[in-house]
Design goal:
The protein is 73% helix and 0% strand. By secondary structure, it is mainly α. It has one domain. Helix 1 runs antiparallel to helix 2, helix 2 packs across helix 4 and helix 3 packs antiparallel against helix 4. It starts with 20 loop residues before the first helix and ends in an 11-residue tail after the last helix.
């Protein structure tokens, strides 16, 4: 006796996996708030390094787990990051000031060199910003601790996948242009989006980033 043919049921439509607009709005609000908190925490200047390190670590946790760390752990991590972050803040500020002064002097003709040196100096500034952004991402992957190891991890990532530096440099350059030329009052909000862009760009371009244990 032959089996009757199976009924030809219509295929069920695949579930809609697109994020709900409320989730998108909540994520956008979280990133904006993150940028505001980082900016406020960096206002004393010497705490800028700790603010970026702690914010990057919190963002990395959010990307990995889907939830933000609690207030108490964040405050504890921030206190631990203040002293180690002072020297990187000073070095970064000095480097940024030197590049800015040189670029300003070249564009105004105070220092000879012409368009060639302007382009070279601007390229150095963009590359330095990209490496600083990549270092912030590596620091976040380490829980906001270990500046020296984060720099080594960033350098290793650049050696293995140089395109990663191009991506982070482009992210920082675009954010800087938006802050300076178009949306200066929204700079605190853009800080959070820029940091998220750096994390997303690094994850996409670097493949599997080097683990903290391998970068020591």
């Amino acid at each position: 006796m032959t089996q009757p043919p199976a009924p030809n049921w219509p295929e069920q439509p695949a579930p809609d996996t697109r994020p709900d607009w409320r989730d998108t709005l909540r994520n956008a609000t979280d990133l904006a708030l993150l940028g505001i908190v980082i900016t406020v925490a960096a206002l004393p200047v010497v705490t800028a390094g700790a603010a970026v390190a702690t914010g990057s670590a919190a963002l990395h946790s959010w990307i990995e787990t889907g939830s933000w760390p609690g207030v108490r752990p964040v405050l504890r991590d921030f206190r631990r990051a203040v002293l180690p972050g002072i020297l990187p803040t000073l070095l970064g500020g000095i480097a940024a000031a030197v590049l800015a002064v040189n670029l300003l002097a070249l564009t105004r003709g105070v220092v000879p060199g012409g368009a060639v040196l302007v382009v070279v100096t601007a390229a150095l500034a963009v590359a330095a910003g990209g490496f600083a952004g990549l270092t912030a991402v590596c620091l976040g992957q380490r829980g906001g601790q270990g500046w020296r190891d984060a720099v080594r991890q960033a350098a290793r990532t650049v050696r293995e996948r140089p395109v990663t530096l191009l991506g982070t440099a482009g992210t920082v350059a675009l954010a800087t242009l938006l802050c300076v030329l178009i949306l200066p009052p929204l700079t605190p909000i853009l800080v959070g989006y820029t940091l998220f862009g750096l994390h997303a760009t690094t994850r996409r371009l670097a493949g599997t980033p080097p683990s903290p244990e391998d970068a020591g």
